[in-house]
Please model this.
Amino acid sequence: MDETPFQMDTRGAFSFPENHKYDAGFGLTEETIDYICDVKGEPDWLRQFRKEALRKFNEMPMPTHWAPAEISGVDFESFRYYLSHGATPSRSWEEVPDDMKRTFERLGVPEQERAFLAGVDAQYDSETAYTNMREELTKKGVIFVNSTEGLKEYEHIFRPWFGKVIPVGDNKFSALNHAAFSGGSFIYVPKGVKLAQPLQAYFRINSESMGQFERTLIIADEGAELMYMEGCTAPQYDSATLHSGVVELVALKGAKIQYVTVQNWSTNVYNLVIQRGLAMEDAEIRWIDCNLGSGLTMKYPAVVLQGPRAKGEVVSISLAHSGQLQDTGARMIHAAPHTTSNIVAKSISIGEGRASYRGEVNVLKGMKGCKNNTECDALLINATSRTDTYPAITVNGNASAVQHEASVSQVDEEMLFYMQQRGLTRAQAMSLAVNGFINDLVKEFPMEYSVELRRLIDLEMEDSIG
Amino acid sequence: MSLIIKNLCARVKDGADILNGIDLEIPTGEVHAIMGPNGSGKSTLSKVLCGHPDYEVTGGSVTMDGQDLLAMSVDERSRAGLFLAFQYPVEVPGVSNANFMRAAMQARLPKGEDVDAVAFYKQLRGHMKELGMDTKFTARAVNEGFSGGEKKRNDILQMMMLQPSYAILDETDSGLDVDALRIVSEGVNAMRAPFRSFIVITHYKRLLDYIRPDVVHVLSKGKIVKTGGFELVDHIEAHGFDFLKNTEA
Amino acid sequence: MDFPASMSMEEAFALAEAEAKLNAALQESKARFEQAVLPNRLNEDWRFGRPHKYATALAELLQSDTHTQGEANVQHGGDAAVRLTAEDEDLRQTELLMPTIGSDALLGLHLERFGSGYALYIEENTAEPIHIHYSTAGLYTPSTFIMVAPGVKAEVVEHHEGLGEDAGMFVTRNIQVAEGAELKISLSSNNMARYMCITNIQNMGGAVKHLTRHEGHAWAREETVAETYTEGSDTRLFSANSLSGDNILDQHTRQIHHVGGATSDLLYKNVLDDKSTAIFAGNIYVAPGAHRTDAYQSNRNMLLSEKATVNSLPGLEILADKVRCSHGSASAPMDEEQLFYLLSRGIPQYEAQKLVARGFMDDVLARFNGEA
Model:
């Protein structure tokens, strides 16, 4: 049963009774913010900063140019904005409270940590339950802590970049996160340090009506390299859960960051996440993004190509079954000459599922030698499935080239017949065909993830066809 | 033990009749050739036997070793021992040859049993060598970007792996050069056995020179109009299908 | 309602039902104009279109100066051509029901000035192309109606011309093509301070080729909605435009497949020089149940100047099965290899560039003319 280290589907469908010391209650007001700041023991500047963000959040309209209509279903009053056991994470699994420890054990997190990770950050509702990193990395000056600790202990590195990649007023959800953020990782990799193994974060929502607002900032100093992976699960509840994280990446000159997400929230979760990276001269940022879960996901990882010759890439897989809208895509802002970007997105819609690609490619004024290539392919499994493509491409000047291609297709009946003639059932044939469709992208995920991804797709196909 | 086709009638779904009462008996161990002009229904017959969704059977019966073939789904027929080497093998993007074959073999095992990976690869490589296929084909997606001849070989490779009781070769010779034709035919001949039958559908004698049939049938307008020995092949090679006009009169 | 005595009960019921449907649609449409607000920044269909500047200015002009100022002429029209008057209630209703792409409020203002332009009822093959010509030095708001009867082959050439520095035109066009009919229609417009054209093509089983060419406008907006109502319909939309100076061309298209088994194809190309801007926002919508649809969309832009800007938004919304759909968008400078090839044959730089740009556009015309 436990051959693969990652079990993120059926394994995530459990919960423990709530056992929180701190609960800020429903809705977000100045009092909620005071409560969060008090529990976390935050400095005054941050308290004021959060309150300013709250004002912006209340003022700003829901996004229109950049959102599906379904987003109007989000009721901000119906969530609980802070739930925790305390704001200090443990450094060893022994110290983690029992139900949390059992949760992460069932999800296989400690096992993976031993097997192949450089460090782990495990978040349970609003706060990090556990953070640890291999000893030798600490010696090299690598910092891997949660965001609260990052702001406290490493303010001189954290604060200059905090809210710089994704400003408070970027959009309503960015303002929301700035007001209510808790948890998430702060990572700093010093000049020239290259991490051989990935760092991993695991986000777990346990409680009903939870709002999780993690905040991650990753800074790769000149020439540094790292890979960061995040996984997400939650139990299914009748009421809605909100996950609205903000992830900022900064890749300084010549640095490389790869950020891998495998999102498998339960379908009562609104997954409204902002992810954006800043790539300086010769730096490289890759988002490798896979969305399988949640009821509504809106997620468009972005790279601002800020330095000459910077590279950005988004590799995106999404799978939408009945009751799901995966509104995913990518954004590439070419703000320096000779920058290149690449977007490959594949989506699969099953049953009454809907997958939309939304993208932006913008070559700003005065740029030369910029290149973008975008490919979106959608696969429709049933007659009731839906897919959309909404790209927005802006090119200024005559010295850059941008190309976008999209296609929509179904699984070819002749192909299914061929496979069935060799003895595979229709569900097995469909499963192979779908795996084949995304095969080139699955290869981009780390081995442990790709094995699990294929297994999840098999399960999905058996459910919908078998 | 045999494949018995009685008065089989079929048409394109909601369309024209193509098979108009086929009667054929193929006893196990024999090789039967089916020849006929374009549009006579040769390829339709092979697809109908395998259960292709584009066609519907409007009458008749087919039994394979006593089982009612027409009552079975496409994959059940395959697992029961029926194999079709396609006239145009289909490309399956992103799915490697090895994974595909393994899945097909796995589908034949009882629940709980797994394909022995070491034995599987040994067998696969062995057969590929026989067919003169480069082993790099194991990792390539099924038929994707293969030449016409490579696709045909790949289908024969699958036949060798799956060891069917009844194999239909639908114009396997088309698109093959002389060397490839010889290699593929040798592969087929090596599989001839008292417990296995072949139905070889072709236009030309050249394939039948390599794979010598026991019985030859001529199909015209959806019916078997003539059955005989190899002399029939020679006759068609020399005079074409013109003689059909007389038989109809 | 009166029914002719010769009409059967079934026919009478069908007619009554059709009338009830139309009334409901008209009610809905009226509600649409009551609710409509002038285009603003939050309107997705005016993204990049700077509505606060251009839509607002056009609306103000339409409201402040309600006189028709322009000339309408027709050539080779024969019996088919009928001059439009304000009393033409059926056609007014057609305009009332026509879809826009984010410009309902502007259409409402156009309706208030309804009553100039031409209707073409084409019931016989056209021996020569019918020419419609609108021109103005002020602000002109004509309407064009074209109906092609079943099995009829027709060719129409439309020209919208600006005659002075401040010329402006806002044209609506309704084109209906019946089963088995063929319509080849080109529209060229030029030299206006502001130009707007809303077109609705309803294809009921015919073959339509539609070409637009806009040149020399300070600001031009095209909204073209091509609807497919009958299986077997074939709609092909083309556009080829050369922009220079401060030209802004804002093109919006929708290919709507209400039923399956039909084809639509779009090819829009622009060559941009100087400080010009092109916006292309296209959408293919395949309704639930419109299975076996083939729909394609391609937007290609050639940028010749470092100050030129392209915004391309090619969209797809697919809600049906067994659909073949694709779209592509490419924006790039002139191909260096092509240019080099011409230079190597001794053609001077300026001429070579002109030739390559022209080849890029001529491809569209060749396809429209069925030569490629």
Remarks:
- Residues 335-372 of chain C form one domain.
- Residues 40 and 51 of chain C are 5 Å apart (CA to CA).
- The longest strand of chain C covers residues 153-162.
- Chain C has a mean pLDDT of 92.
